[in-house]
Write a structure and sequence with these properties.
The chain is α/β, with parallel strands linked by helices. The chain has 25 helices and 21 strands.
């Protein structure tokens, strides 16, 4: 009898070479292999007859293979094996591509179970590239068959036989008791864990193929819920740790502070801004450090909300800091905050290129600077605060969780406000930023007009630039954005090097400038300042201007090779216009489109709603690509998908909070005891302990 911890090297058929391949992929024990789940399923319950084939499709046959021959082909790297499949009703030609070893593995005239795609070739049907198992060894003939992702050279058929031997030798029900509290299993109608695993690997004969392939079978749903519940329990325990930490600083929120904030405001806040500001201020007044994420679309007014929260901190004789991912954005925030706050507070700017960093750090440590704005430079060891109260992090997705945690360790556990203009659907935000409370500014300031958007093929480029020239003559200002600085052999896209000077020549008479990542910082700042002042009418740039430039008079955005940009990035670029009173336009010019490119640009052209765009981006790209590899905190799931399984994610979150808040039974206590060490480890890293 096998055990879950039995090394795979003890299994029949696992020799030294195969065990090394499995170990390199992370499979060393029987339990590891049990969680290597099928990629998809094939329906082989109906064994067809050759004479009964009436159309193209996937078929399973039981018959004899004969006449197998290697066929020479001129195309390099391609080999063919052809033969015939016979049963009692007739014969059908069979072809295999790039499987020259097949002839040595098939006994002429023996009976096999084969499964593959039947296609019409001329006047008859042909079976293409079928799987092939001897009938006495075809464990999954006449059934729903799991198809596994290969592990090295161990393919699906080999894995199917290996898994069948393991399942036959394991008493799963005894070895794998379900630790999920019965109340939760009953609430959601879930099968026990052992049954779930067995049915995922060996679906019952009555299984629904569509639900299996959609990962919606009873077995899949139990595994999905289990993964998501463990994640949400870990995050809930982490939050409970936070509520036991007390901050050493206190805030004053009275009529005097409210009047100062009102007097600083250049306009009335929207209802959404007022709601989010109240949530922040309520958090600041609790005895526990705030950890709050503010989501808001481009132009929704997140910065003014953060600035008012900082006013509360500064008026409470605390320091504040505002961290941005790029120097350009940090400089923009510095100017905006200086303009808003006037001379009431001492505000400093610290970036990687700051010449007075040592002086700034000394003044900050002595309390001479009340508010510091900067980049990653703020989290260097040499930077210390006298009494940091509130830290604001803009564009959180461009940092990682690790950078946020470093900033949180500055001072004595400051309150932290995280902002992002990349809208993230609630379910994903609850997963990635699970240790943060969530606020959403879902309303644009009055008077903000939607940006008129057109998506056109590159054949219309001439007409677009002729239109641009007419608009410039009428007084407009414009951005033209390229994906590349210089031409690339690997990427088909327009570059600034290729088109920038030609475009400037075409637009002669209208002052223009080129800005990209290699432009020296001082020159770039000067050109951007001249664009903001109206001296330059066209700014030709790469995505360096994606965030951090606020020029209300700019009303036109042209995006070249738009198919090379992600959907959220396109939306951010479009957000550079539409900031003033003039009607604004965005034109996306694209080259050849693949299926995903067509979907992205279709969504981009049809809506300016950042949350709808984020949902579509998730569906097209998936959460890992959307958030980027730098975003620590997004777990790797074996079966759950936080896009497809958003409903189960919400259920798991509610259940996790319930388990922690009410009296628990023994099963719940055991589950929490298993999760708690992982949460404690995450908390220790977060708290710097």
């Amino acid at each position: 009898m096998l055990g879950l911890q039995t090394p795979l090297t003890e299994l029949r058929g696992i020799g030294p070479a195969r065990s090394r391949v499995l170990a390199a992929a992370g499979f060393e024990r029987v339990l590891d292999l049990l969680f290597h789940l099928p990629l998809r399923y094939e329906d082989r319950r109906l064994v067809a007859r050759v004479a009964g084939v009436s159309g193209e499709g996937s078929y399973t046959f039981e018959g004899r293979l004969r006449g197998l021959k290697d066929i020479r082909v001129r195309r390099r790297g391609l080999s063919l094996v052809r033969g015939w499949l016979d049963d009692e009703t007739g014969s059908m030609p069979v072809v295999w591509f790039n499987r020259p070893y097949l002839r040595s593995q098939v006994d002429e005239g023996a009976t096999y179970v084969v499964h593959g795609a039947v296609r019409r070739r001329g006047s008859r049907y042909e079976l293409g590239n079928p799987t092939c198992e001897a009938v006495e060894q075809a464990l999954h003939g006449g059934r729903v068959v799991p198809v596994y992702p290969a592990i090295g050279k161990l393919g699906s058929i080999g894995l199917r036989h290996l898994m069948a031997r393991i399942l036959a030798a394991l008493d799963l029900e005894a070895l794998l008791p379900d630790r999920l509290p019965p109340l939760l299993r009953e609430r959601h109608g879930l099968v026990p864990l052992a049954q779930a695993l067995r049915e995922v690997h060996e679906p019952p004969s009555e299984a629904d193929l569509e639900r299996l392939n959609a990962r919606r079978s009873p077995g899949h749903l139990r595994l999905i819920y289990g993964e998501l519940l463990e994640l949400q329990l870990e995050l809930a325990i982490l939050r409970s740790h936070e509520t036991r930490v007390e901050k050493r600083h206190r805030y004053t929120v009275d009529d005097r502070v409210r009047k100062i904030a009102r007097d600083l405001l250049p306009f009335r806040l929207t209802k959404a801004q007022k709601r989010v500001l109240k949530e922040i201020v309520d958090d600041l007044q609790t005895p526990h450090p705030m950890l709050r994420l503010v989501q808001g679309d481009v132009g929704s007014g997140k910065t003014i909300v953060a600035a008012l929260a900082l006013v509360v901190a500064l008026e409470s004789e605390l320091q504040g800091c505002f961290m941005a991912p790029t120097e350009l954005l940090a400089e923009q925030h510095f100017r905006s905050l200086r303009q808003l706050l006037g001379d009431r507070y001492r505000v400093g700017l610290m970036t990687g290129s700051s010449r007075r960093r040592a002086t700034l750090a000394r003044d900050l440590a002595r309390g001479r600077i009340q508010l510091i704005v900067g980049t990653h430079a703020l989290i260097q060891e040499a930077v210390e605060f006298q009494r940091l109260g509130l830290a604001v992090i803009d564009e959180q997705h461009r940092f990682g969780v690790a950078q946020r945690e470093v900033l949180q360790r500055k001072g004595s556990r400051p309150d932290v406000l995280v902002m992002t203009a990349t809208p993230i659907p609630r379910s994903l935000a609850l997963t990635v930023y699970g240790d943060l409370a969530l606020s959403v500014i879902d309303e644009l300031p009055p008077g903000r007009l939607p940006v008129h958007t057109r998506v056109v093929p590159e054949g219309e480029r001439g007409a677009v630039y002729a239109w641009l020239r007419r608009e410039l003559a009428a007084g407009a200002q414009a951005y033209v954005v390229f994906p590349l600085i210089e031409e690339s052999e690997r990427v088909r896209a327009k570059s600034i090097e290729e088109m920038g000077e030609r475009l400037r020549g075409y637009l002669r008479g209208h002052p223009s400038a080129i800005v990209h990542g290699r432009t020296p910082v001082e020159e770039r700042d000067e050109l951007v300042a001249r664009f903001a002042a109206g001296e330059i009418r066209v700014l030709i740039a790469t995505t360096i201007i994606e965030v951090g430039i606020d020029v209300p008079t700019a009303s036109i955005m042209i995006i070249e090779s738009a198919e090379r940009f992600g959907l959220s990035q396109l939306h951010q670029l479009r957000g550079r216009v539409g900031r003033g009173r003039a009607r604004s336009s965005c034109v996306a010019i694209h080259g050849e489109l693949g299926e995903n490119g067509e979907r992205r640009l279709g969504v981009f052209g049809s809506t300016t709603d950042g949350f709808r765009i984020a949902e579509a981006d998730l569906d097209i790209r998936g959460p890992g690509d959307l958030l980027g590899t730098r975003q620590a905190g997004l777990p790797t799931f074996r079966v759950a998908n936080i896009v497809a399984d958003r409903d189960w994610l919400e259920r798991a979150r509610a259940d996790a909070r319930e388990l922690l808040s009410r009296p628990r039974d023994l099963a719940a206590e055991e589950l929490l005891a298993r999760i708690a060490p992982r949460a404690a480890d995450r908390y220790e890293r977060f708290a710097g302990g």
